[in-house]
Design a protein that fits this description.
α6 (115-121) crosses α7, α9 (185-191) packs across α11 (208-219) and α10 (193-202) packs antiparallel against α11. This protein is α/β, with parallel strands linked by helices. The longest helix is centred in the middle third of the chain and has 19 residues, at 137-155. The chain has helices spanning 46-52, 56-59, 65-68, 83-89, 100-107, 115-121, 137-155, 159-166, 185-191, 193-202, 208-219; strands at residues 2-10, 17-26, 29-37, 77-80, 96-99. Helix content is 42%, strand content 16%. Strands 3-2-1-4-5 form a 5-stranded mixed beta sheet, with helices on both faces.
Length: 220
């Protein structure tokens, strides 16, 4: 069984790839690391630089993503932490996607779900080559691969079950933005349902999970 764990670093939340990397998880072994810096189609935001420390000078003269993406093709399964984001910014990948974020949410309730939090909370066995650090694409691939190994061991889920969970909407409990940021969606649905209805109608780029969650609590 082969899984290709993939990660991108971008110019910001709206995309613009500056780095791509993968490792393959084959029969429980993490092998075949690949990574490329990429010249993006837009400026790198300072907020993004503060996270991954990739600067304009580092990607100057690098190829566009379309020129390098071909070597990352070829796997039946792609795995990413918050797969919806990476899948959304990449050119078409010919394989099915598994989301370790959704798997972790289903398997480990009532904790936080960032890669680094899960690394330490679950005491993941991660051996990262020297010179890599968090929020660079290849480093994060090693952590995600170790997380996938743990999820498979703890859950016993088949590939089909992981795909089912990955493709199902996640019920979010808390609003992450707007005037009610940090409050429970269930409470907002009771106190100010018109605001949630306005969000559904007016915010075109709501994530599928957020739209599903708002509709769930409004109906409830």
């Amino acid at each position: 069984m082969t899984f290709r764990v993939i990660d991108t670093e971008t110019c910001g939340l709206d995309g613009g790839i500056v780095e791509i990397a993968t490792v393959d998880l084959i029969d429980g072994e993490i092998v075949q690391p690949m990574s490329d810096l990429v010249s993006p189609d837009r400026p790198i935001s300072h907020e993004a630089m503060a996270i991954h420390h990739i600067t304009e000078e580092m990607v100057d003269g690098k190829p566009r993503i379309a020129a390098v993406i071909g070597k990352y093709h070829g796997s039946p399964y792609y795995v990413a932490h918050n797969a919806a984001f990476d899948r959304g910014v990449l050119p078409e990948m010919h394989g099915q996607w598994i989301c370790t974020l959704k798997l972790a949410q289903a398997l480990y309730p009532n904790i936080r779900y960032s890669n680094q939090y899960l690394r330490y909370a679950l005491k993941l066995d991660v051996i990262v080559p020297e010179g890599l650090y968090p929020h660079r694409a290849l480093y994060d691939c090693y952590v995600t691969a170790a997380l996938l190994k743990r999820i498979i061991a703890d859950s016993g889920w088949s590939v089909e079950k992981m795909l089912e969970i990955s493709n199902s909407p996640t019920l979010l409990r808390t609003l992450k933005f707007g005037k009610y940021r940090g409050q429970k969606i269930e409470d907002i649905a009771l106190q100010d349902p018109d605001y949630l209805r306005w969000m559904l109608k007016s915010i075109k780029d709501l994530s599928g999970d957020m739209r599903f969650s708002i509709e769930h609590f409004l109906e409830k």
